[in-house]
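just leaving the lab so this will be short. what follows is a protein written twice so to speak, once as letters and once as structure tokens for the fold. can you read through it and tell me how you think this chain folds. thanks a lot i owe you, the record is right below.

___
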Amino acid sequence: MKTQVIVLNGGSSSGKTGISKGLQAVLPVPFLAFGIDSFIDSLPASLQASGAGIEVAADGGVAVGEEFRRLEAAWMAGVAAMVRAGARVIVDDVFLGGAASQRRWRQALDGLAVLWVGVRCDPEAATRREFLRGDRITGMAASQARVVHQGVVYDLEVDTTRTESLPCARTIAASLVD
């Protein structure tokens, strides 16, 4: 298996984390999993609701500031360093900037074998999941469902609207067979 990094991109509540866990269960070699939610959770409280960090509006819109971008770049470089040191990694992210977000990851992962996976989910289905989760602001899933894919180039896409995470993970794993 040549792939060193699997990047999952999709909107909030699209099923990326479930797919990531499914991949860890079905892949024949270990992959570490790192998600944007964990990165955000690692930020100090002063950056979790500020213009310099990340702000989530009442309608679910998300804005990030300069300090967030600086720390995000360091996080991306750290993930890439782990891969260069021999770890395989699954990245679970939300490309709020579409193609610009992918460019930042491409730069960090330059020279590594990356599988780019789009995780699509119908906005209505993602909204239902968002409601059931109870840990997201209503509107986030619908606002992100399509915008995160704008201009992004994928090697593979899966759709979780009617397909559970584990079958999607198996589809991704099957594409890695060399």
